[in-house]
C-alpha cells in the first residue's frame, strides 16, 4: 500500500461518524428511511415497544436488517416499556431472536432486562430512563450501555458538559413531537385512564384542552391546550450539536406514515451533509442518494417548531390554540360565498388539498378542496365558517403527497475502478467508499484500438453501467501501454465478478466489525443508589428490576405506579412552565401577578400545579 493511500485510509477511519436515525412504523417505512439517507433505523417489535399501536414481526425486522446492512446502516429495536414478571421470559426469548437475525442494538428502559441472560447485543438507554445528569449517564455506561439517548430538555451547555465528562455515545432528538413531561416521568395517562405511557399505551392527556384556575377560583384561561407543546425542529442547530458531542441525531415518529419518513429523513440527510462538508466528520453509513423531490418540512405533519430548551428557556415552544398540525400559511380568504371562496395567495392549490383556519371561537376548523374553477375554491362541505381576511393554512398538500407516494429515491455506493494491463491480460481493482477493496486478474487477448480516445471512453462507459446493483462508478483509472479494444461481453463478465467479490467483502467486513461492537454488560456492582429509598419514579414493575436496584445500592424500592394507587402523586415533571409562558415567572423584571395555587381542569379531572423555581420546573399533581 502506498504511503498516500495509507494516510487517506487512516484519516478516513479517524473521521468522526455522525448518524442520522430515522423512525420506522413498519418494514416499508424502514426501507424508505434507508433509501432516503438514514444511517440507522429504529423500529418496534410485536411487543414491549413504547408505541404499542405499531409492532412488527421478527421476520419483517430481519428483512429490514438485511436491507439496511447492505449500506452499513444499523437497525435498532425498541424494547423500551417496563415489564411484568410474567413478561420477562417472553422478552428474553424475543431478545435472543432479535440477536440471531442481526439486530444491531436494543433500546431499553426496564433495568430488569439487564438481569436476564442476554446475548452479547448492544444496549441503548432509552430517553425513558430520564438521562439528564453526568452521574446518571456515567452509571449507565458503567453497567454496560453503549449509548445514552439524552433527555430532550438539555441545553447545549449541558450536553457539552456531559460529553466532556463521559466517553459514551450520545444520541439526541432533532425533530418531531415533544412530551411536556420528562420522558419516563409522566403518569397522568395511567392515573386518569389506566393507560400507562411507560407501557406504550399513552392516552395523550397533554394534548387535551384545560382551563387554568387561580387560587381565588378565577378562570384565567378557558379550554386551551395548555400542556400541548410545539414540535421540535433543530435544523439550525446541527453544527452546534455536533460540536457539543452529539453523534446520533434522532427523528421522532414511529406512528407516522411513509411520506413523513421520506420527507423528513431526506431533509435532515441534506442538512447534515451540508454541515459536515469540509469537516473531520462523515456519515455513519455508505452511499449517496439520488433524490427526485425537494424535501420540505412544511408539507408533512408538524405543530410548528422550536429548539426546545437547547438555547435555554425562551417564551416559545407552545401554542395553546390547537394540538393539531396546521401546515403552512397559504394566504387570506378574499371573497367568501355560499358556494366557495377565493384566496389571496401565491400558492397553487389542487383538488384534495386540506385547508384549515381558526374560526370566530378560536377553534381550528377546516375543509378539503373538492374542485377549483376559475380561481374559486369549492369546499367538500357546506359554506365554511370563515370570513374575508381569515388566514388559511394548508395541512395537506395533495400534489406533494402524491409525488412522495410515487418517488423512489435510489441510494448508491460509489466505487473506484483501477484497470492495469499485465502480460496475460489485465488486473482489476474495485474499491468502495468504505475502503473495501478486491482485486483479480483476467486473461484476455489484447487488441489495439483503432480509435484510441473512443476506446478508453467506451470501456469506462461500459463499466459504469451497473444497473440495479448497489453501486455506481465514481472514478475510472487505467494504466495501459496503449489503448486497447475490449469487447463488451468481457467487460460485462469482469464487472459482474468485481461486484460480487466487492459485495462479499463488504458483508464480511460488516460481520467482523459487528462482533467487536457486541459485548456482554459488565457484572460488577456500583453503589450508585447507595442506601437510597426509591419511589415509584424508578418505574420498577418486576422482581428483576428491583433486584437490579438493590444490587446497585438501593435500600428500599417502591413498585411502579402501575402496581399501586398513589394519592397526590406527581403525575408530570416538566421543564416547561406555565407561569413562564404567561409572563408570571418571578425571575423576570416585571412578572404578571397570579394568585397561587394554580389548577388545571379538564372535565371532571383537576390537577394542582406546583413550581420549583430553584430548578425551573413545574409539577402536575394528581
Keywords:
622 residues, 27% strand, 31 strands, 14 helices, eight-stranded parallel beta barrel, alpha/beta
Average pLDDT works out at: 93
CATH superfamily of the domain at 13-178 and 233-294: Copper homeostasis (CutC) domain
* Biggest β-sheet strands, sense, barrel: 8 strands, parallel, barrel
CATH class of the domain at 13-178 and 233-294, named Alpha Beta
| Strand fraction | 25-35%
Provide the CATH topology of the domain at 13-178 and 233-294. Answer: TIM Barrel
What is the architecture of the domain at 13-178 and 233-294 at the second tier of CATH? Alpha-Beta Barrel
How much helical structure, as a percent, in the residues? 25-40%
Q: What is the number of beta strands?
A: 31
In terms of quaternary structure, the protein is: single chain
**Radius of gyration, in angstroms, nearest whole number:** 28 Å
**Overall 3D form:** globular
- The secondary structure category is alpha/beta
Distance between the termini: 68 Å
Read across the widest sheet, the strand sequence of neighbours is: 1-2-3-4-5-6-7-11
Can you put this structure into words, describing what you see?
The protein starts with a helix and ends with a strand. The strands form six sheets. The protein has an eight-stranded parallel β-barrel, surrounded by five helices. The chain is globular, with a radius of gyration of 28 Å. The chain contains 14 helices and 31 strands. The chain has 622 residues and is α/β, with parallel strands linked by helices. Among the domains are: 13-178 and 233-294, TIM Barrel (Alpha-Beta Barrel), CATH 3.20.20; 328-406, Thrombin, subunit H; 415-517, no CATH class. Helices cover 27% and strands 27% of the residues.
Amino acid at each position: 500500500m502506498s504511503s498516500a493511500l495509507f494516510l487517506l485510509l487512516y484519516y478516513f477511519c479517524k473521521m468522526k461518524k455522525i448518524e442520522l436515525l430515522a423512525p420506522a412504523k413498519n418494514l416499508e417505512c424502514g426501507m424508505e428511511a434507508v433509501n432516503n439517507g438514514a444511517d440507522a433505523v429504529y423500529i418496534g417489535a410485536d411487543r414491549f415497544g413504547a408505541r404499542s399501536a405499531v409492532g412488527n414481526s421478527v421476520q419483517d425486522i430481519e428483512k429490514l436488517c438485511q436491507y439496511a446492512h447492505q449500506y452499513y446502516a444499523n437497525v435498532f429495536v425498541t424494547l423500551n416499556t417496563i415489564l411484568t414478571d410474567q413478561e420477562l421470559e417472553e422478552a428474553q426469548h424475543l431478545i435472543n431472536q432479535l440477536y440471531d437475525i442481526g439486530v444491531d442494538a436494543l433500546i431499553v428502559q426496564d433495568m430488569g432486562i439487564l438481569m436476564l441472560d442476554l446475548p452479547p447485543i448492544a444496549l441503548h438507554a432509552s430517553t425513558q430512563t430520564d438521562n439528564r445528569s453526568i452521574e446518571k449517564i456515567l452509571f449507565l455506561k458503567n453497567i454496560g450501555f453503549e449509548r445514552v439517548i439524552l433527555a430532550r430538555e438539555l441545553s447545549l451547555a449541558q450536553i457539552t458538559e456531559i460529553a466532556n465528562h463521559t466517553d459514551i455515545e450520545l444520541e439526541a432528538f432533532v425533530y418531531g413531537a415533544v412530551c411536556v413531561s420528562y420522558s419516563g416521568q409522566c403518569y397522568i395517562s395511567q392515573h386518569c385512564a389506566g393507560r400507562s405511557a411507560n407501557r406504550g399505551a399513552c392516552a395523550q392527556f397533554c394534548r387535551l384542552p384545560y382551563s387554568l384556575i387561580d387560587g381565588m377560583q378565577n378562570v384565567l384561561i378557558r379550554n386551551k391546550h395548555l400542556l400541548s407543546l410545539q414540535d421540535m425542529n433543530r435544523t439550525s442547530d446541527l453544527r452546534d450539536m455536533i460540536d457539543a458531542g452529539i453523534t446520533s441525531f434522532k427523528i421522532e415518529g414511529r406512528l407516522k406514515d411513509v411520506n413523513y419518513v421520506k420527507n423528513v429523513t431526506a431533509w435532515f440527510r441534506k442538512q447534515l451533509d451540508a454541515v459536515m462538508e469540509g469537516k473531520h466528520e462523515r456519515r455513519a453509513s455508505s452511499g449517496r442518494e439520488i433524490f427526485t423531490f425537494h424535501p420540505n418540512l412544511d408539507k408533512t405533519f408538524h405543530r410548528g417548531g422550536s429548539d426546545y430548551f437547547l438555547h435555554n428557556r425562551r417564551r416559545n415552544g407552545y401554542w395553546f390554540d390547537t394540538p393539531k398540525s396546521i401546515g403552512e400559511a397559504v394566504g387570506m380568504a378574499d371573497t367568501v360565498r355560499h358556494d366557495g371562496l377565493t384566496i389571496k395567495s401565491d400558492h397553487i392549490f389542487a383538488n384534495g388539498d386540506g385547508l384549515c383556519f381558526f374560526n370566530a371561537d378560536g377553534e381550528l376548523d377546516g375543509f378539503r378542496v373538492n374542485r377549483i374553477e376559475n380561481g374559486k375554491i369549492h369546499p367538500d362541505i357546506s359554506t365554511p365558517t370563515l370570513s374575508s381576511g381569515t388566514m388559511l393554512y394548508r395541512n395537506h398538500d395533495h400534489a406533494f403527497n402524491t409525488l412522495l407516494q410515487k418517488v423512489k429515491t435510489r441510494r448508491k455506493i460509489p466505487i473506484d475502478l483501477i484497470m492495469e494491463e499485465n502480460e496475460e491480460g489485465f488486473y482489476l481493482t474495485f474499491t468502495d467508499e468504505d475502503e473495501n477493496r478486491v482485486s483479480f486478474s483476467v486473461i484476455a487477448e489484447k487488441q489495439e484500438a483503432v480509435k484510441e480516445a473512443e476506446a478508453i471512453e467506451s470501456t469506462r462507459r461500459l463499466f459504469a453501467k451497473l444497473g440495479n446493483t448497489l453501486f455506481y462508478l465514481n472514478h475510472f483509472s487505467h494504466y495501459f501501454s496503449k489503448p486497447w479494444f475490449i469487447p463488451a461481453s468481457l467487460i460485462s463478465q469482469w464487472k459482474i465478478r468485481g461486484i460480487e467479490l466487492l459485495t462479499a467483502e463488504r458483508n464480511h467486513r460488516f460481520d467482523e466489525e459487528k462482533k467487536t461492537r457486541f459485548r456482554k454488560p459488565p457484572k460488577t456492582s456500583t453503589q450508585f443508589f447507595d442506601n437510597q429509598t426509591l419511589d415509584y419514579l424508578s418505574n420498577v414493575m418486576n422482581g428483576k428490576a428491583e433486584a437490579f436496584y438493590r444490587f446497585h445500592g438501593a435500600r428500599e424500592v417502591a413498585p411502579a405506579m402501575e402496581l399501586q394507587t398513589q394519592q397526590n402523586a406527581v403525575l408530570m415533571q416538566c421543564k416547561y412552565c406555565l407561569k413562564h409562558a404567561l409572563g408570571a415567572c418571578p425571575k423576570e423584571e416585571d412578572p404578571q401577578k397570579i394568585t397561587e395555587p394554580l389548577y388545571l381542569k379538564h372535565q371532571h379531572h383537576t390537577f394542582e400545579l406546583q413550581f420549583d423555581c430553584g430548578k425551573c420546573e413545574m409539577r402536575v399533581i394528581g
